[in-house]
Description:
alpha/beta
Amino acid sequence: MGLVVQKYGGSSVADAESVKRVAKRIVETRQAGNDVVVVVSAMGDTTDDLIDLAKQVSPVPPARELDMLLTAGERISMAVLAMAIANLGHEARSFTGSQAGVITDSEHGKARIIDVTPGRISSALADGAIAIVAGFQGVSQSTKDITTLGRGGSDTTAVALAAALGADVCEIYTDVDGVFSADPRIVPAARRLPVITYEEMLEMAASGAKVLHLRCVEYARRFNLPIHVRSSFSHRTGTWVTADYTGNDPEGNPVEQPIIAGVAHDRSEAKVTVVGVPDKPGQAAAIFSAVAGSGINIDMIVQNVSGAATGRTDISFTAPRTDGAKAVQALEKIQGEIGFESLRYDDQVGKISLVGAGMRSHPGVSAKLFGCLAEAGVNIEMISTSEIRISVVVREDDVNTAVTAAHTAFDLDDPEGGAVVYGGTGR
């Protein structure tokens, strides 16, 4: 008997009929001889609706109380799913994140998992029950308050539980048939990837691909836990996220390592330019210390060569759009100390990223990317690279054009155009 952890996203449990369909799938897994632990997200757009409600009541709701409110969405899902499974003749027990032993730090809204002590889950499995766990939430080790893990945190809950329980696999069920070479909503000809490595999936997730939460992939890589991304709306093969390309996917199909795994995009960033920074040691450190002191994560950084006549340079960086105003405020406070001339803020940008472990051994990938974007009339504003990723910042209006052009240029289009988006509103 194996142990399978399954996670179902909001679109998979959006309404009563969807919950019944998911319950049937869970029972089928149990009847196949497996112990089953299920992690659920809130139904449909419940989390967004609760956020809207909170903002109607208070422009800046207290973080502790907002977490308490938002965790109600997953509690509804876990309870109704347990009821649906019971209606099919199988015992199911529902647990909140804290009851399941998900221990976090005390950072409300974006808590990180410190430990998982799934004693009650193990007891439920020993009694022959199916365990249903509310995703996205835990309990602070220090304050004992309820916390949330940030949007997409149910993926991390599932992988953390799977690792703690020694599961054979963590199945992530979503509204598409696996991980695709681009967002099927933008590129209908996107190709399903039978296998993708942890490092490629990390780069894809960090670059804006929404199919898996970044911390979920980090957790899976740390414990070498295979993730199987599938659709809850079909029984298609899906995508395996594993350590490497072994020649065959876990279902026995031959797989070759591609040069490029996919094209990701992100519309959630803004660009800040610090104009006229005196070109002397310590200035960049002061700028980024001020930004870091405000708790802002910086993505890409570009510094221009200083002008010989002025002895000044411009430094541009990208950060989450939601933190843009905070970054500008932090820099305005140190303008007199550093002596830069002005600040420019641009929130009409987008990022596209080409990701693939195969580009390590294939020269010319950058030239091909820049060439295809030029042919498509897309101007590049910033460039950043890693060993297996090339990212560029473009105008937000050019993102779809850039993604489509890069996808076609690197022969990623599926001639059968098999990408299907089954559900989800995209809120």
